[in-house]
Design brief:
Chain lengths: 219, 147
């Protein structure tokens, strides 16, 4: 096994990992979804700090920008479309869930014994294709940042696929949420659809819901 | 958020530096950490901050959704089109070396990676803004008490 001496960095790692666990536990306990979203941002930022201490700055950068930045904002936007508070759990299935978590957690814990030690030069990542990229990039690409060389040149197809995934996600959101007025999805221009909605509403009190919502005027 | 003077002023101060940082991350990805994905997200975050403080109608005046739709497609086409262009020049798909074949310091790779990363940045930035607009555009402005 590969051993590292205890150093200040280990203390930093321990502190970050403890904070990660604490954040996750608080996220489970809190019922206000606004707090949960904010805590998930905190969780991502802590992960980014941990990646920095592992010398994976590109991954840390992505985690900070995507995890802590944009997904927090998107989760807030999604939260506005639903309730502000999580419902209380009914207790009849909690036992099953706990058993599942314990079994999966034990399996992961058991599997972690087979992981190579951090920085092990004999691990497949460091001995195989990784070292190949490190050796070839200066001769074949000439970029100082090997991550970019792998991402955009050696693995250019993969990155094209990732870009298409992002594009597809955007198109899917446009198709799901894009119709209706800019404010509120109820403004239906088609008179048949309004009539159908009128017929569906038996109670007169619900009538305004079927009328087209006026677009907010440009201030 | 009419009354939040500090938030509005801080947003106005931060808006341009965030965009500048996104451009730095975009075009410095060859030399340091970063690249198209991160730059696109940071670029979008500037406009999302603007939306959070000034409201979605104000931000739509700066970046209309029609522009975002076109930008999403342009970003993907920049990437995929680079591959088609290298094929036209007789190299494999995304074989950048053919762009400047006589270079002895891999200039073709540099140009190819720069173009491709720019396509990623444009696609990611416009898609993220589009998704956010679609989410927040469905609800009326949130009162401060609702949080």
């Amino acid at each position: 096994m590969f051993h590292t001496a205890a150093s200040p960095i280990v203390l930093v790692d321990l502190a970050i990992l403890s904070l990660l666990v604490a954040t996750a536990l608080v996220m489970i306990r809190v019922r206000r979804l606004f707090a949960v979203v904010m805590l998930s941002g905190v969780y991502s930022l802590l992960s980014a700090a941990f990646f920095v201490s592992l010398d994976a700055v590109d991954v840390a950068f992505t985690e900070a920008a995507v995890g802590a930045g944009i997904s927090t904002a998107l989760m807030l936007g999604g939260m506005l479309l639903t309730a502000r508070r999580e419902k209380e759990m009914t207790s009849n299935r909690q036992g099953v869930a706990l058993a599942m978590v314990v079994v999966v957690g034990a399996a992961l814990f058991y599997a972690s014994f087979d992981l190579p030690a951090f920085g092990d030069p004999q691990s497949p990542v460091n001995a195989g294709v990784g070292i190949d990229y490190v050796e070839r990039t200066p001769n074949e690409i000439g970029l100082p940042n090997i991550v970019t060389a792998v991402l955009a040149s050696y693995r250019g197809y993969d990155t094209l696929g990732e870009t298409l995934v992002v594009f597809t996600a955007g198109v899917a959101v446009m198709l799901l949420l894009g119709f209706g007025s800019a404010r509120g999805g109820l403004a239906v221009k088609d008179p048949d659809a309004i009539e159908a909605a009128d017929d569906a509403d038996a109670t007169p009190a619900a009538e305004p819901a079927a009328a087209p919502q006026p677009q907010r005027g440009e201030g | 958020m009419a009354g939040h003077h500090i938030l509005r002023i801080v947003t106005k101060i931060l808006f341009a530096p965030i965009l500048l940082f996104a451009l730095y991350v975009q075009f410095h990805g060859d030399y340091g950490p970063g690249g198209g994905f991160q730059a696109g997200v940071i670029f979008a975050v500037a406009f999302i901050l603007h939306t959070l403080v000034f409201g979605v109608e104000e931000t739509r005046k700066i970046v209309p959704e029609g522009v975002l739709r076109v930008a999403m497609v342009i970003g993907v086409l920049l990437y995929a089109g680079t591959g088609v262009a290298t094929m036209m020049l007789g190299a494999p798909y995304l074989g950048y070396d053919v762009i400047v074949p006589e270079s002895d310091h891999h200039a073709g790779q540099h140009y190819g990676i720069l173009i491709v990363e720019f396509g990623v940045g444009v696609a990611v930035a416009s898609t993220m803004m589009m998704i956010f607009f679609k989410f927040v555009g469905r609800e009326p402005d949130i009162k401060d008490a609702d949080w």
